[in-house]
Amino acid sequence: MSNSSVRVALAVVLAFSASALGQATQRETARADAFVAQAERELADLSVQAYRAEWINETYLTEDTDALAAEIKARLTELSVRFAKGAAKFDGVKGLSFDVRRKLDFLKQGIVLPAPEKPGAANELSTLATKLQSQYGKGKGTLDGKPINGSDIEAAMGTVRDPAKLQEMWTSWHDQVGAPMREDYKRLVSIANEGAKELGYADVGVMWRSGYDMSAEEFSSEMERLWSQVKPLYDQLHCYVRTKLSEHYGASVQPPTGPIRADLLGNMWAQEWGNIYDLVAPKGVGDIGYNLTTLLAAKGYDPIKMVKDGEAFYTSLGLPALPDTFWQRSQFVKPRDREVVCHASAWNIDNKDDLRIKMCIKVNADDFVVIHHELGHNYYQRAYNQQPFLYLNGAHDGFHEAIGDFIALSITPEYLVQIGLLDASRVPSADKDIGLLLRQALDKVAFLPFGLLMDKWRWGVFSGETKPGEYQAAWTALRLRYQGIVPPVERPATAFDPGAKYHIPGNTPYARYFLAAILQFQFYQAAADQSGWKGPLHRCSFYGNKEVGKRLNQMLAMGASKPWPDALETFTGSRKMDGSAMIAYFQPLLKWLVEQNRGRPLGW
393: closest CA among 106, 68, 34, 35? Predict the structure, then answer.
């Protein structure tokens, strides 16, 4: 055969192979398209049933509604697992459209704890997860040697000022709630990691970090970058609070240098410090001049009026009023005739317009803020309700929390004047700004390192970098490294302090809360710029600004249909999450803290 004949024959073979390969690729892409369409259809239908069952359960707690909710959740979990495993089979397929590839990834990442495909694994994993949550829910500590349940011990940690009693509550809660979970948690990690590997991930932590339109490694670096931006503010706050606690309790209880004793910060986990404002408030400017709870009572507010004001904030931006069914079907107050779940939440039952909130509203400042926050979820849910089922979510999980948070930041004195709650003559003068900002920083700034380390600990556990025998030591080390706090007593290797925080036994990823803490200020600064605000950032109210509402709704309507930088750019003009807005917001406080801390050592 001549050289030319060989070339011709080879060309024919290659053309045939390319044609066959192309046909195979087309078949695979068509199969992927059909698979995604079926998954969306089945998950959408079952999700509505699940939402209805869960709503009935949480607003009418009985053994029967528990059983019905558990049954539908199990069906939804089984379906989600089936579609996650099916989606993983398309990982190597070329030529998939952007939407199909994105939705396949969402299907794989839609399970927090994946079970491996081996007999009994799913049941064992479910049993362990349920057991851990139940242990937490039934957990008790002690105060004065007497048992005290979770909600009561949380409240007491914020009001008790006796360091011996604080130590007792802290230690008993961590010993009695956390420690017994250790072996079950170890087993849960092992099973879930097997499931994650079957989905193509190295471990569960990598799977969690892969849901942010970047690699797991890039996401870890992004979290550290954001923390480095805001750490100087946290360091100054830590130094100031440590000094005040040392002055109040004495150096033998809280030394004036080094880390802070965890139980002295007004919160069981030292994640928010607002409850100790009375101990650290600056003299002369600590009183901001008005009390929102008192104002609400004086104006005759009831729970419905509070929600109406929240709705009015959003409609002032040009967003539509809530549907009539919202007012007919929401739970606003705790019923007198039955047990309900009072934890505030926002719902879209039918994925369209059946919006609701579930609260047990009390007429106070905290719930006024929570209402504005929860309605942020509802308006986000409504804005993206035209998206396909797998895009019915925030741009990433931090966005959903941040929307309500940034709206709540606009509950400023100026806003209270605009809605008639505060007389203009009583707006705090500029010399009260330090008190206003310090009170906020004790919660929002103090939270940052805790929001970061929760999942950093789990990532180490899931990857195997942190061995079971090192669970407690790794937790204590991260708390010291990032928060600058230490336990009030020595913790043995047999302890399991992470389990004393709900989101660990509840298996709720936590990075979203850190991201929301950053994003809310970035959104707020963007809204201030759009509204033309010229004063101090923390005083801005964009209430009534239609341009802000227009830009906001454009971002919300995207849901999860595009990578989150696209959504972020739509509202802020930036494609990067940025902690500098938080620094700008707290700039007057930061300057004041630097002056107060002059001559004192920062860090621990």
Answer: 106
